[in-house]
Amino acid sequence: MKYKLHCFAQSGNAYKVALMLNLCEADWEPVFVDFFNGEHREDAFRELNDMREVPVLEAGDLALSQSGVILDYLADSFEQFDAASVPEHREIMRWLMFDNNKLTGSVAPLRFLRHFKKKGESELTQFLEDRAHSALSVLEQRVTDAPFVLGEKITIADISLCGYLYWPDEAGIDMAQYPHVSVWLERISALPGWVHPYELMPGHPLPEESDEDKPA
Ligand SMILES: N[C@@H](CCC(=O)N[C@@H](CS)C(=O)NCC(=O)O)C(=O)O
Question: What pTM did the predictor assign?
Answer without folding.
Answer: 0.97
